[in-house]
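This entry is retained here.
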Amino acid sequence: MFIGREAELQFLENRYHSTGGQLIVLYGRRRVGKTETLKQFCKDKPHVFFSCRECTDQLQLKNFSEKIFQEDIPARRYISRFSDWEKAFLAILDLPYPESKKLLIIDEFPYMCKNNPAIPSILQNLWDETLKDSNIMLVLCGSAMSFIEKELLAEKNPLYGRATGIYKMTEMGFYDAIKFFPNYSEKDKVSAYAILGGIPHYLRQFDPALSLKDNIRQNILTKGCILYSEVDFLLRQELRETSLYNSLIEAIALGSTRLNDISQKSLVSDTSKTSVYLKNLIELGIIEREFSVDVTTKERTNTNRGTYKLTDNFFRFWYAFAFTNYSELEMGDIDGVYTYAVQPLLHEFASFTFEEICKQYIQKLQMANALPFRYARMGRWFGKTTVRDTSKENGLRTAETEIDLVAISRQMEKYLIGECKFKGRPFRYSEYLDTAAKLNPQKEQAEFFYFLFSESGFDEKICAEAEKDNHLYLRGLDEIINCKE
């Protein structure tokens, strides 16, 4: 069963039903579901779907010719293959689809260009002279994001400015990902998403009929299963010096977030070298550089600002639990690793992802116009602020701290403060007071709203406070998971 991707499918449908020629570039990291989405899009439409291979240019042309000749075009009566790519691409005009657009999808297009760099120029000439005014739709799809962004779509590339649509596919959000596990409890849905993220290929490896525990044991920790070798396969496919990248990713997964800390933990003495490696991981969609929500654009260019975190949940799980116990897993000690390494820390591990889920919940409310105001930016906040300190005369002191979620209106006159607790006990009133004490200077000129998110409910004092304070919102796990907005 195909799950999610409504926005991507709607985008493709809109382009398909638009007049004139359509040249679409659809790309994204490996495993994100591009091919399956394109197959879902074209399954009820006459089309040609060609998957490029890593092979010589002549063999690629031969394979493409054979694919096109499966359709009833005039050329197949006279030749067994096209003599060059120009004739091959022009054949799209001869596809026998009189009632609909002539649809050609080229999957993993960078493979086609790898052994023939002239391909983009050939397509450019054909597009400018003929194809752009024809009733065709050409979709170029690829996983090599650096090639797509820096070469195919770059200003000096022949195809620059020709695409009528460019769509970068990212991983699924929480609310689509949990559709893979409809019978899991709310807590297990959070944990499953914390482990697998929104990558469809990873999500499909779990059997929804098995418990979360059994899925982890059988489909991640067991040597020979798909996910056991996934991280190593992806890194070797995309990068050289995998041992060094392993060290960097492990350092981030285990809590090092700043450039110097990552360099020291991974034993890479040169931070400038570390920056280059981290940039490569960012381009692959494995990590990201995070800034406080109030940081300016200029400050973001400072290489010493910001923190690094893993955006791929499965990578974070693998390096936190499997990579550090790899020798035991190779020997087959699955039960030991799960019982002593995974199980005691899994709930705490999922608490970090719970913050991201709460963020997606707020995004859903914004789209439904169900928030007290419309925010212009949202993210984590970290810096110096006022915190409670009962040992001080006024009960307050200044300290380095973080806020899980801050959303700010365009004119900065309204703030939404979110605090997320994924713990086996209710959200305490004292914790709410700690949150309310932060960002006091901004309160002189802005209106503040508080959203408190809790796995295990709230104590009586918070509930009583929320009944009389229309700026305080309480959200339990069931309401967050089953949000219908």
